[in-house]
Amino acid sequence: MIEIEHLTKRYGAVTAVSDLSLQIDSGRTSVLLHAGTEDLYRLCGDIFLACAENNAVLLELTPRRASLEDVFLELNAGQPEAPAADEDTDKDKEARS
């Protein structure tokens, strides 16, 4: 189990995370983080140290670059496609009848 209580992460005057508390049951957990390159490497180091100090198994911690399109496609994978705005749906046709 992973447990975090009252986590706050600041970068200078900017608060990136404020008072985060959560519990994650045992098993495989994936996390997707978005930040600037320097912040991402620093945060990866912090996550690695926290896992090592708490004897948590860390299977992978690989920063990678992704475009906005890559992120959109990953977040929407498996979602049904919405009809195009200019296409009439059956309900639209029935409503006009």
TrEMBL record:
It comes from Candidatus Faecalibacterium faecipullorum. Residues 77-97 are annotated as: Disordered. The lineage of its organism: Bacteria, Bacillati, Bacillota, Clostridia, Eubacteriales. This is ABC transporter ATP-binding protein.
